[in-house]
Design brief:
The chain has about 220 residues and is mainly α. The protein has a domain of about 70 residues. About 60% of the residues lie in helices and about 5% in strands. The protein has eleven helices and two strands; from the N terminus they run H-H-H-H-H-H-H-H-E-E-H-H-H. Strands 1-2 form a two-stranded antiparallel ribbon. The radius of gyration is 47 Å and the shape is rod-shaped. The chain starts with a helix and ends with a helix. Bound molecules: zinc ion (ZN).
């Protein structure tokens, strides 16, 4: 057998053996459990620091102080938290939090809810829905003009004139009921006074109804 051929074959075998050997080493390492002692040695080798026996004891003790949380411990923590005010959230709180975290869209939704909560029958100014009633056909331009002329185109509360107002004065329903269009229920007011009389309605109604001018209207 020529030397050259043998050498090539040997080299080939040698190479194959080397690969197989590496694989075996690799496999053996995969299942190998590194002992604490070995880890310590590796750590010392990596850091170049030799831990004293005292340090090792401290490290060991430190590790022992932090045991993994057992199911029993978790149950105890849960029990303690149940008694706390900031404990589990109620369904209501969860819902609120959910809304609060939905961003702008939720914000608009919340605004709508707040608006709904404050409007209508919940409003301090709620009058039983009469503000939504349409003005009857009788309460037309002609009737309003008649009332203004009767009142001399002057606000019956503050004496502001149409000229001072800069436009036609408003005609107010004394009892706040839009369908009551008798002339004795109508009075000329400036826009400022008309806004003012939207609160304390009962007192204003009485105020106007006690007015002598309207007594004469009743008797007609
Ligand atoms: Zn006025």
């Amino acid at each position: 057998m020529p030397t050259g051929v043998y050498k090539r074959t040997a080299a080939c075998y040698g190479h194959k053996h080397s690969e197989e050997h590496k694989r075996k080493i690799s496999e053996s390492l995969k299942g190998h459990v590194v002992s604490a002692e070995t880890k310590q040695k590796l750590r010392e080798a990596a850091t170049g620091h030799k831990y004293s026996a005292e340090s090792k004891v401290k490290m060991s003790a430190s590790a022992k102080r932090k045991p993994p949380v057992t199911e029993e411990t978790k149950a105890k923590i849960r029990a303690v938290n149940l008694g706390k005010k900031n404990g589990p959230h109620t369904e209501e709180t969860k819902a609120k939090m959910s809304v609060a975290h939905k961003g702008k869209k939720a914000s608009e939704e919340t605004k709508a809810k707040m608006s709904a909560a404050l409007s209508g029958s919940n409003s301090y100014n709620w009058q039983g829905g009469i503000s939504f009633e349409p003005y009857p056909p009788k309460f037309n331009k002609q009737l309003k003009q008649k009332i203004r002329e009767r009142d001399g185109n002057v606000c019956q509360l503050c004496s502001k004139t149409r000229e001072e107002e800069g436009r036609e004065l408003t005609v107010h329903h004394i009892d706040y009921i839009k369908s009551h269009c008798n002339e004795d229920n109508l009075i000329t007011l400036c826009s400022s006074c008309n806004s003012k009389i939207n609160s304390d309605r009962e007192a204003w109604t009485k105020h106007f109804q006690d007015d002598d001018r309207f007594e004469s209207c009743h008797s007609e």
